[in-house]
Amino acid sequence: MNDRIPVIDLFAGPGGFAEGFSSFPSGAEKHFRICLSIEKDPYAHRTLELRSFFRQFPRGQVPEDYYQYLRKKLSRSDLFSAWPEESRGAQHEAWLAELGSDGLLDKEVDNRIEAALNGAHKWVLIGGPPCQAYSIVGRSRNKGNKKYVAEEDKRHFLYREYLRIIARHWPPVFVMENVKGILSSRVNGRRIFDQILSDLHDPAAALKSETGNSKASFTYKIFSLTQPVSYPVEDGCNQFSPNDFLILSEGYGVPQARHRVILVGVRQDYKNIIPKHLIPQNLVSVSTAIEDLPKLRSGLSREEDLFSLWEERVWELIDDNELFDTICNDYDVSLQDQIDKALSGLKSGALYGRGSEFIPFDGVRHDDWFFDPQLKGVCNHTSKSHMSTDLHRYLFAACFAEVYDRSPVLSEFPMKLWPNHKNAHSATGFINFSDRFRVQLASKPATTVMSHIAKDGHYYIHYDASQCRSLTVREAARLQTFPDNYFFEGPRTQQYIQVGNAVPPLLAHQIAEIVHDMLM
């Protein structure tokens, strides 16, 4: 293990970035070692710590106790007590701390990093600052807040903590990730991404006296992972346009249209290191990613949660004569047939009820990236509860998507299925609510899995109308390419948030290969 390249993960979330690096290559012999992951959220930290415990063991030698914990037959404290050395390693690696906070001293962060690196000269820094201030959605929300002043939003400058750590510890290579909105975000009228590129090129100059570092300073060449490099390579490598740093994950085997800014920095004294670019892959559809998972029904909110009552509520879609007549009169017969097919399949669509945090199951057919023969089931696979009116909308939308290979906009729903919201019936409402109910199409990559899935399943409707529900945490995790034995801790809402905020491990795995080739 000591021969592996150390990796420091900042703003780690649940550890998707680190998972990609730590799992490279796919065989038993790994090339990277995650020596420190820093995350402020307690639930994400628990997930990180558990995954770190998993990684303490060689591939294929994870003890049965770990799987007993996933099956809820062993407590976390008993698991860690049974394996004290590995649990200490996990607790040392996963650090619950908020970077950039007033209470956390730079010296404390630096000491932890130096101890984790243990004198290693060849290592990698990964991660990215929190993105709410840069995201298009976040800026849209702040636009209506008169008290919000962009220039005073500290989240704009959390990247400076990442920058400070670069300027203090000088990693040979760093990989930084953020949301697409960072490309258009502005502060004081200046595009912040231009400033970030300039700062990352010369961290010491950007921070001036903030680092307290008396060692020699370096500059960095900043590279895109999507575009080949033109020669000769300039000092700052400013041959790339901002959009060259944008990675469309669906083009690299991730079953999701997740568009993120990812850049690589190489220290100036590594003169001959030029990263390769990612190799495009075939698109992976939603059904390919999740079709082998156990079928579940949704729950019923505000009612007794019984299958018989759930089935009755779903059938009311057809029992409503006015609604049935609308469907018969306004839509072609193929849609009617699809609705009949979905209704007749309700029992098969609810084979495993509403699921649970662990379902014994032997039907997983995926390859080694997801599959673990020791798991013998599926974890984090519990459905949400929905109002009966939403069940009808989900069933109609999923049937529509099956017939027309696209998700319906609100104007294409029977009016009786429109939400009881004044904006839905106004001119502006059609713009705001047009894709209020979005089916994840079976034949295409999913739309971006965001943390908002924790609050609202309407944008993440399962393509199988007979299941009549939104996606589970495990399905979202599959779309994010987390292995099936990757367990997300905390309440379900927090699990969704962790999945939505993560870097897809399969994408990180491909980046790890590029970084490894650079350093070897």
Give a written overview of the molecule:
This protein is an alpha/beta fold and 520 residues long. It folds into 2 domains: 5-285 and 502-519, Rossmann fold; 286-501, no CATH class. The protein contains 19 helices and 14 strands. It has helices at 16-22, 42-55, 64-70, 76-82, 84-93, 106-117, 136-143, 159-169, 192-201, 203-207, 286-290, 307-319, 321-330, 333-344, 388-404, 427-433, 473-479, 492-501, 505-519; strands at residues 5-10, 32-39, 94-96, 124-127, 173-179, 186-187, 190-191, 220-224, 246-248, 259-267, 299-300, 355-360, 377-382, 385-386. Strands 1, 2, 3, 4, 5, 8, 9 and 10 form an 8-stranded mixed sheet that branches. A hairpin with a 2-residue loop joins strand 6 and strand 7 (190-191). It is globular and about 80 Å long. It starts with a strand and ends with a helix.
In short:
The chain is of the alpha/beta class and 520 residues long. The chain is 36% helix and 12% strand. The longest helix is centred in the C-terminal third of the chain and has 17 residues.
